[in-house]
Design brief:
By secondary structure, this protein is α/β, with parallel strands linked by helices. It has a single domain, classed as TIM Barrel. About 45% of the residues lie in helices and about 15% in strands. Strands 7-6-5-4-3-2-1-8 form an eight-stranded parallel β-sheet. Strand 1, helix 2 and strand 2 form a beta-alpha-beta unit. The longest helix is centred in the first third of the chain and has 26 residues. The two termini are about 30 Å apart. The mean pLDDT is about 95. The protein binds pyridoxal-5'-phosphate (PLP). The site of pyridoxal-5'-phosphate has 13 residues, from strand 8 and helix 9. This is Pyridoxal phosphate homeostasis protein. Keywords: Pyridoxal phosphate. GO terms for molecular function: pyridoxal phosphate binding. Its cofactor is pyridoxal 5'-phosphate.
Length: about 230
């Protein structure tokens, strides 16, 4: 059973790596410029362990109640945990206990909460500003005009490090157009924060467009792990 799953994950991983390599070649970029993050939400810790065995080091989850036990169950592995879901301030303390990167920072109150939590935990959290690329409410992300202020707040906060920006392409929109806008926002943030080099964009369905627009990190769930049983958001 485990061997079968391992073979399935290995084949999926080879496919995804080939897609990233092809997208990099088409964009004139080196494949090492793009980091693959496995989004393991709804899948068991045993899959995280198998992926780590296949050489993956970056893992993402979007719900604290699922992420925490998985991170604890795999604490012996050399993994970097990314939190990519909408985050309530009252979960900041829990997330700061295991996450290395919080990709979904979209308001100043969350910056304050994460800074406090990082201080208590004695850890440094890398934070990305999540940018809303559509006007739809409820999917998280700061309006593009709010991004510079949030970036400054993270950069100045004790215990936090500004990594860059993250976005999800709008539902039903043109991902290339949306990721192009994200690239412009990311470049403006780098003008004042040269170390904020991360552009986390692209998922199973649109990683090629994201790589073409300069993504440094792609977050891939379905194409690596298979279909999720329940749609969480
Ligand atoms: C689920 C999720 C992904 C991965 O999506 P897939 O389409 O399954 O690759 C990426 N980013 C975020 C924020 C997610 O919630």
């Amino acid at each position: 059973m485990n061997d079968e799953r391992r073979a399935e994950l290995a084949a999926n991983l080879a496919d995804v790596r080939a897609r990233i390599a092809a997208a990099c070649a088409a964009a004139g970029r080196a494949p090492e410029e793009v980091t693959l993050i496995a989004v393991t939400k709804t899948f068991p810790a045993s899959d995280v362990r198998l992926l780590a065995g296949l050489g993956l080091t970056q893992v993402a989850e979007n719900r604290d109640q699922d992420a925490r036990p998985k991170a604890e169950a795999t604490a012996d592995l050399p993994l970097t945990w990314h939190f990519v879901g909408q985050l309530q301030t009252n979960k900041a303390r829990s997330v700061a206990g295991y996450a290395d990167v919080v990709e979904s920072v979209d308001r100043t109150r969350l910056v304050t909460a994460l800074s406090d939590a990082a201080g208590r935990a004695g850890r440094t959290l890398t934070c990305l500003v999540q940018v809303a690329l559509d006007d739809r409410e409820g999917r998280g992300g700061a309006a593009p005009g709010e991004v510079p202020v949030l970036a400054d707040a993270i950069a100045e906060a004790e215990g936090l490090r500004l990594g860059g920006v993250m976005a999800v392409a709008p539902l039903g929109g043109d991902p290339a157009e949306a990721f192009g806008r994200l690239a412009g926002i990311a470049a403006r943030i780098r003008d004042s924060h040269p170390g904020a080099t991360v552009v986390s964009a692209g998922m199973s369905g649109d990683l090629e467009q994201a790589v073409a627009c300069g993504a440094t990190h792609v977050r891939v769930g379905t194409a690596l792990l298979g279909g999720r049983r329940a749609i969480v958001r």
